[in-house]
Write a structure and sequence with these properties.
Layout: E1 5-6, E2 11-16, E3 22-28, H1 38-48, E4 65-69, E5 71-73, E6 79-81, E7 86-91, H2 113-120, H3 136-153, E8 158-166, E9 169-170, H4 191-206, E10 213-220, H5 234-243, E11 248-253, H6 264-267, E12 271-274, E13 277-280, E14 288-289, E15 292-293, E16 298-304, E17 314-317, E18 323-326, H7 340-361
Antiparallel strand pairs: 1-2, 2-3, 3-7, 4-7, 5-6, 8-9, 8-10, 10-16, 11-16, 12-13, 14-15, 17-18
Length: 375
């Protein structure tokens, strides 16, 4: 199997299966002397970790990450990167493969069981194997490395994500509060919406069903100039990275699909000159113009489909061609979009770190093209 890597100068290769001994990643291209310890990565993995509320899978995985290579103490004793590949491992400790023995020959509707077997002639049915969203733990660990790179070169950069829609319920953007994201189990920026999500998802769970979600990720403190105007577009790479997350079926940047209903006047982000450089009066472009960052917040949203593993009986076929029925037992997220929030942040971080290194490698500046006005 190929295509387990993404990125160019900041390149991530993930490995492992849902019910294997462990999973992890190798991050190549990390510059030397970047402060990096396991605690820097664990904080992000803890946000994605399963079993933290009744609204996520009850699989109890501590998701403890270990750094196997690529770091060494500097003269002060602080652990920093050496410029060699950073290898990370996360052990699986609570896999229950027996939950899948009854369906090992059946194709779960909505899953990649059929297409995986059609392509490779073999599949790991235990939790989906390599197809499982468990693989995203390695992405979040890699995202922690990417954040460390960004922190070294862009100290003011910040990447934050939030769940803005669950099923048919949406947040009220007038009530957006980033501080609220860490105070509820849904990563919702609207306290009232988070309260409404609870009974809604409880009802979905009781029915043995699932629901989808929309996640928004924003990066602030990113200078203009990252990306390229043709095949290396920043928004193209970002869309590809977000689309590669399990269960994602749609990605939009800035106004996204809503831009089709705007007029030219409404969609164009007018500019004025501020004391510290250009000021945009709106951000329909999502911080990216012509594939290149503008210095505004980079804003992306992605839609996650309802979890395919549900208790409701579904019609399917088995690998022998017989028609049958399937009920997917085991431990599953009633809304996989909840834990996709830190995954989306991680993919944004990896793409930005990659484009930052590409920018610096081509002699790019970290500043505005417009000089400050002299009063």
């Amino acid at each position: 199997m190929s295509h387990n890597s993404f990125g160019h100068l900041f390149r991530v290769t993930t490995w492992g299966e849902s019910h294997g001994a462990a999973l992890g990643c190798v991050v190549d291209g990390v510059p030397p002397l970047v402060p990096l310890g396991e605690a820097d990565l664990q904080a992000w993995l803890d946000r994605r970790r399963p079993g933290q509320s009744r609204f996520t899978t009850q699989r109890q995985e501590p998701d403890k990450v270990r750094i196997l290579s690529g770091v060494f103490p500097d003269e002060s004793g602080a652990q920093v990167t050496t410029g060699t590949p950073v290898s990370l491992v996360i052990e699986n400790v609570d896999a229950r493969s027996k939950d899948y023995s009854d369906i090992k020959d059946k194709f779960r509707p909505g899953h990649a069981d059929y297409t995986y077997l059609a392509k490779y002639g073999i599949r790991d049915y235990r939790g989906g194997g390599r197809q499982s969203a468990r693989e995203t733990a390695a992405r979040v660990a890699a995202g922690g490395v990417a954040r460390a790179v960004l922190r070294k070169f862009l100290p003011g950069a910040e990447i934050r994500g939030a769940l803005v829609q669950m099923g048919s319920l949406k947040i009220d953007r007038a009530k957006w509060d980033w501080a609220e994201v860490g105070r509820n189990p849904f990563f919702a920026p609207d306290a009232d919406a988070a309260k409404a999500f609870e009974p809604y998802l409880d009802e979905v769970r009781k029915k043995g069903s699932s629901c989808g979600a929309v996640i928004e990720v924003a990066a602030s403190g990113i200078p203009p100039g990252l990306g390229a105007p043709v095949y290396g577009k920043l928004d193209a790479d970002l869309a590809s990275a977000l689309m590669s997350i399990n269960a994602v079926k749609g990605v939009e940047i800035g106004a996204g699909f809503a831009a089709a209903a705007l007029s030219g006047e409404e969609n164009s982000d007018e500019m004025r000159m501020g004391n510290d450089g250009p000021v945009f009066l709106s951000n329909a472009a999502g911080g990216i113009l012509g594939g290149i960052s503008s210095g505004q917040d980079i804003v992306a949203r992605f839609a996650v489909k309802p979890t395919s593993s549900i208790l409701a009986p579904r019609r399917t076929i088995d690998r022998f061609g017989a028609e049958t029925e399937i009920v997917t037992k085991g431990r599953h997220d009633p809304c996989v979009g909840i834990r996709a929030v830190p995954v989306g942040e991680a993919m944004m971080a990896c793409v930005l770190a990659d484009h930052l290194l590409r920018h610096l490698g081509q002699g790019g500046r970290l500043g505005s093209a417009v000089p400050l006005r002299k009063e």
